[in-house]
Amino acid sequence: MIFLNAFLLSGVFCMIAQVILDNTKLTPGHITSFFTVLGAGLAFFGIYDKLMEWGGAGATVLISNFGNMLYLGVVEGYKEMGVLGLFSGLLVKSSAAISAAVIIAFVLALFFKPKD
Amino acid sequence: MNKDEYQKLVSEFTPKEKKLKNAVLAFLVGGAIGFIGQVVVAILTTSFSMEVKDAYVWLCISMIFISSLLTALGFFDNWVSKCKAGLFLPTTGFAHSVTSAALDYRKDGFITGLGANFFKLAGSVLLYGMLGGFFFGVLGVIFHG
């Protein structure tokens, strides 16, 4: 049942992050950075693909998927363009997420004021 | 009493239950986001006959939009301080950090305020994500390519 798997997968990742946050002095910034790099590492070992097969959107909503997409971008860039593709491919797959975050955040900042 | 002893005392009196409650809450909130994401993907792929790959991208963009909007409306900060990892580990946390930096620093001007501080919080995710992705990507090309 993929809906249950999605719930369990993202839930367990968030719970691990919460346990790290509560038991160490690391800030959310440290933890999100760590999980992003962890996503790239899991992609290298072929684990992230399996997680996405098993948990579907549960794996793609996490910040770790950002690392996974960066990894895939580099590998596919190399297949298409050789060494140049290592650099030009890095952001290709995650471009949609970064662009959306930048544009939406800027437009909202024009219309809204911070609530202290 | 020195600093270490004081820290020990503090950790002895910090209730363990709160940590358990936080962990359960992060599990439920994070899980709910994954579940809702799967529902959205299921709707997009069946009703809109979209490819799974594209559905994931639309899911990502809509999550960013919703969490940015909730940040701008002022709800998200309270929720993040309650649910913590349940909300900052999914992509919602990335969008929240960008939007809240944009909102907070706009008063200092568009270049020296908003522009200079736009990636203040999300910058570390971008930097170390790109470094890690590049490093593992090169390894992947060497070992699997």
Count helical runs of chain A. Answer: 7
Distance between the terminal alpha carbons of chain A, to the nearest Å? 43 Å
What kind of oligomer do you see? heterodimer
Order of helices and strands of chain B: HHHHHHHH
Mean pLDDT of chain A: 94
Ranges of chain B where pLDDT stays below 50 over 5 or more residues in a row are: none
Largest sheet properties of chain B: none
How many strands, which pairing sense, and closed or not: the largest β-sheet of chain A?
none
Q: Give Rg of chain A in angstroms.
A: 17 Å
**What portion of residues of chain B belong to β-strands?**
under 5%
Describe this structure in words.
- The complex is a heterodimer of chains A (116) and B (145).
- Chain A has 116 residues and is mostly helical.
- Chain A has helices at 2-23, 28-44, 47-55, 57-60, 64-81, 83-88, 95-111.
- Chain A starts with a helix and ends in a 5-residue tail after the last helix.
- Chain B is mostly helical.
- In chain B, helix 3 runs parallel beside helix 6 (91-105) and helix 6 runs antiparallel to helix 7 (110-117).
- Chain B has helices at residues 3-13, 16-47, 52-73, 76-83, 85-88, 91-105, 110-117, 123-143.
- Classes of the chains: A mainly alpha (116), B mainly alpha (145).
- At the A-B interface, helix 1, helix 2, helix 4, helix 5 and helix 7 of A face helix 2, helix 3, helix 5, helix 6 and helix 8 of B.
Outline the fold blueprint.
The complex is a heterodimer of chains A (116) and B (145).
Chain A: H1 2-23, H2 28-44, H3 47-55, H4 57-60, H5 64-81, H6 83-88, H7 95-111
Helix pairs in contact in A: 2-5
Chain B: H1 3-13, H2 16-47, H3 52-73, H4 76-83, H5 85-88, H6 91-105, H7 110-117, H8 123-143
Short description:
The complex is a heterodimer of chains A (116) and B (145). Chain A is mainly α.
Structure keywords:
A: 116 residues; mainly alpha; B: 145 residues; extended
